[in-house]
Amino acid sequence: MARVIIIGILLGYCAFVIYRKVKNVKAGKFCDCGCSSCEAKCHKKEERKQD
After folding, report:
1. Which among 3, 7, 8, 35 is least surrounded, fewest beta carbons within 10 Å?
2. Opening angle at CA 46, ends 41 and 51, nearest 5
3. How far from the centroid of its chain's Cα atoms is residue 39's Cα?
4. Contact, 39 vs 31, CB < 8 A?
């Protein structure tokens, strides 16, 4: 019985972490500067690095 509870807690935690990660990605917090609509303005940073 304890094993089922521990597995349930672990699965719940994993689901929460995945949900939070997906939510942050959709909010644009993990922009890799590969898109033109990047709100992080990192395209300008990349242009400065190339000069």
Report:
1. 3
2. 135
3. 15
4. yes
Which tokens in the block code for residue 42? 């990192």
- Tell me the C-alpha distance between 23 and 31, whole Å: 13
CA–CA dist 14, 34 (Å, integer): 28
Cα distance between residue 7 and residue 2, in whole Å? 9
- The domain locations on the chain are 2-50
Per-residue pLDDT tens digits for 2-50: 999 999 999 999 999 999 998 887 877 766 665 666 655 555 544 545 5
* Token duo for residue 15: 């689901």
Tokens matching residue 7 = 């597995």
